[in-house]
Amino acid sequence: MILSQERGFLKSQEAFGVLCDSVLRAGKEGQRLDQVERELFAQLMELGRTLMQEFVDRAGDGDAGATQKGADGTTLHRSAEPHPRRYLSIFGELTIARWVYARRVGQKIELAPLDQKLGLPASDFSYVLQDWQQRMCLQESIHESVSSLRELLGVAPSVRAAEVMNQQMAERASTFRYEQPRPPADEEEQILVVTADGKGVPMRRPLEERVRTSPRRGKGEKANKKQMAYVGAVYSIAPFPRSADDVVDELRRRERSADRPTPQHKQVWVEMTTRDEAEGCTGQETLFVELAVACHERNPKRRKDLVCLMDGEKGLWAARQEWIKGAIEILDLLHVLERLWAVAHCFHPEKSREAEDFVNHRLRMLLEGKVGYVLGGLRRLLTTCRLTAERRRTINGCIRYYDNNRDRMKYDEYLAAGYPIGSGVAEGACRHVVKDRMEQTGMRWTTNGAQAMLHLRAIYLNGDWGSYQNYRIEAEQAALYGHTAA
Asked: What distances in angstroms separate CA 268 from CA 100, 195, 198, one per listed residue?
């Protein structure tokens, strides 16, 4: 055995010598640097696979005697011959031959000493390969990520295996979030902000809905259905007092104020709404429970100003009132502004100076706390101007929106206190976490697949990917072997 192991390392040393010779030869032949780079990479990959195999061979074959005691004290018998196991690493595929133990020949393997010694994963894919594959899956389609990995390394799981890997990797995401320590108190700011929004995810239709009797869709029938993904975030931020003129000037120039403070320790969560919500919490409820826990952990003594900043969706505000008590409610100014622009275009052409003046005048009044004046003026326009039915609906919709959220539009007070009044964090999270990945061309999701992908994307975008990989590996090793392998 020792002689064979030494021969193996001598083989690796010879391969390294060949690699060095190829570099010298490339220099004499005047090869381009990129050609040398590609050849080196291929040779190093093969050398890495050889060294990995040598490491495995030196670990032995897992023969611990004719019998062993199982976890429950049952006598386990050694297999009649070594069982080979496939292991796909980033360097290529290895075959690991080892003795295994079961209660009887042919029954389920209950003990594999070499697996435990090496800390092998539950699947055939190395933890490093799983990490790299799923990093790529978070950015592009699973099919494209598999193709990209195979192009780079020459090895990759199948598309189906990558899909299963994604869901298995996300199984411990919720537990991981709950076990994370809260941010250090000296790194937090005075205002704690919670924000939430919803974004539809295109879903795969059930088989019975995909089979149509007619070759064309009926009137109003859409190509796909969507289910809501609810995105929430919690962060702290320093007060930033400003005037109505400051905000109007910033919006007019479409620039971010250089003095605006930066959100601290922003944490994003995403929860899907399932088709059958009768069996448990909706995605919205699950999200707000998590947000409430985060708010409590980051503000246990209620010394911070707690602000809830969202758009006008009634369901979100109802969930806030149930789960996050005592928060100062602020209606997102950007949604207020969108409706004001829609009204302006009922009277003036788009991109016209008149439309801009119309909006800026009323926006300044809103920011000064004069919501009643704006509402009165909009109602007068309805009675004094001749308008089409569509334009009347637009103006009425704006009036209802402002009237229903009037208590959340005390912008003069919010600006004086230095509170944020725009939910750019939630809007950005909906776009970045959900839309950029879940609505790529032709994508359709199952609920489980969508939830797994969104959980992993949230962890990745929160900057916790490396910590989560360590966490889930240690948890899987403990489940497989009772402890983390060396």
From this structure: 44, 10, 13
Q: Supply φ then ψ for residue 356, to 5 degrees.
A: -65, -45
In the numeric block, the tokens 């980033």 are attached to 90
Scan for tokens 């990479």, then name that residue: 41
Q: For tokens 């064309």, what's the residue? A: 216
481 contacts 195 by C-beta, under 8 angstroms: no
- The amino acid occupying position 124 is D
The owner of tokens 């994963």 is: 121
Nearest to 119 by CA among 479, 465, 464, 471: 479
In sign, the C-alpha dihedral spanning 323, 327, 333, 339 is positive
Q: What is the DSSP code (8-state) at residue 407?
A: G
To the question of pTM greater than 0.85 for the whole model, the response is yes
CA 116 from chain centre, in angstroms, equals 32
Residue 197 C-alpha from the chain's centroid: 15
**Any idea which residue has 């948890």 for tokens?**
475
CA distance 196 to 368: 26
Burial label, 167 (beta-carbon count in 10 A; 0-12, 13-18, 19+)? middle
Write out pLDDT tens, residues 176-210.
Answer: 999 999 999 999 999 999 999 999 999 987 655 55
DSSP string across 41-61: HHHHHHHHHHHHHHHHHHT--
pLDDT (tens digit, 9 = 90+) per residue, 232-242?
999 999 999 99
The H-or-E segment that residue 461 falls in is helix 447-461
CA dihedral over 447, 448, 452, 458, signed as positive or negative:
positive
How far apart are the C-alpha atoms of 400 and 404, rounded to whole Å? 6
Are the C-beta atoms of 343 and 393 separated by less than 8 Å? no
Q: Is 267 helix (H, G, I), strand (E, B) or coil?
A: strand
250-278 pLDDT, tens digit each:
888 766 667 889 999 999 999 998 755 55
The C-alpha angle 426, 428, 429, rounded to 5 degrees, equals: 65
Cβ-based neighbour number of residue 43 at 10 Å? 16
Q: How deeply is 134 buried, as exposed, middle or buried, from its count of CB atoms within 10 A (0-12, 13-18, 19+)?
A: buried
Contacts of range 461-464, beta carbons closer than 8 Å, 24 or more positions apart: 461/268, 461/429, 461/432, 461/433, 462/266, 462/267, 462/268, 464/176, 464/180
CA 299 from centre of chain: 25
At 116, list the tokens. Answer: 């435990």
* Eight-class DSSP state of 111: B
Tell me which amino acid residue 60 is: G
